[in-house]
Amino acid sequence: MLFILLLFDFIASLTAILYPLHAKAQLYFDLSNISTIGTLYFTQINSQSPVFIHGTLKGLPPHHSYRGFHVHEQWIDRLINSCTAAGPHFNPYNHSHGAQKSPSNQRHVGDLGNILTDQNGYAVIHLTDPIIRLDDGNQSIINRTIVIHQDVDDFGLGQYPDSKTTGHVGSHVACGVIYAT
Ligand SMILES: [Cu+2]
Ligand SMILES: [Zn+2]
Predict the structure, then answer these.
(1) Backbone dihedral angles phi then psi of residue 34, each to the nearest 5 degrees
(2) InterPro entries from the entry (predicted)?
(3) Which ligand is nearest to the CA of 93?
């Protein structure tokens, strides 16, 4: 009997997700595959916890400026690194574009707000998000692409035609695929 219980325990341990989960994305300029501008690290401690993102990026446009920061839907080929090929914002529930702090039904899953670059083009990222996931399911960002844009994300509040879909963030500056590690 004990043996059977132990056997069940063993089988359960093989199929369980082993937390914490980790992922990372190496970012490259749009249409460039030569040298990375930095790496972002993603951690999810358990099935209920938010995802923590941290990392440092360099070589971005050298202005003290906010720039849109999103998970886009598709995986892209790093040898080409076409950020545009990542498609629209990751939006499995078909919501309008919003702010990272918006309620989950008023943002895309991929809406992570803005990052701040300094006058030397550095950005230090420390962000916790309760909506994106590293485990399986509708909200998983694994094998999707993180994108940094030229301009500030207006969180859907602007008067531009693309405010409600992209936050009017302008061109794709850099991007990279998020891989489980
Ligand atoms: Cu974007
Ligand atoms: Zn969005």
Answers:
(1) -85, -60
(2) SOD-like_Cu/Zn_dom_sf, SOD_Cu/Zn_/chaperone, SOD_Cu_Zn_dom
(3) 2
pLDDT tens profile 7-39: 666 665 666 789 999 999 999 999 999 999 999
Write the pLDDT tens digit of every residue in 46-76: 999 999 999 999 999 999 999 999 999 999 9
Token pair in block for residue 24: 């990372």
CA of 46 to the centre of ligand 1 (A): 27
Count the neighbouring beta carbons within 10 Å of the beta carbon of residue 92: 13
Start-to-end CA distance of the chain, whole Å, equals 38
Task: Tell me which ligand sits closest to the C-alpha of residue 166.
Answer: 2
Nearest ligand to the CA atom of 162: 2
- Ligand 1 is an ion; its neighbours by CB within 5 Å are 70, 147
Instruction: List domains and CATH numbers for the chain.
Output: 21-180 (2.60.40.200)
Rounded to whole angstroms, the Cα distance separating 40 from 59 reads 15
Q: How far is CA 26 from CA 53, 82, 178, in A?
A: 13, 14, 8
Sheet holding 145-149, edge to edge: 111-117, 65-72, 145-149, 172-180, 21-29, 38-44, 51-57, 123-129
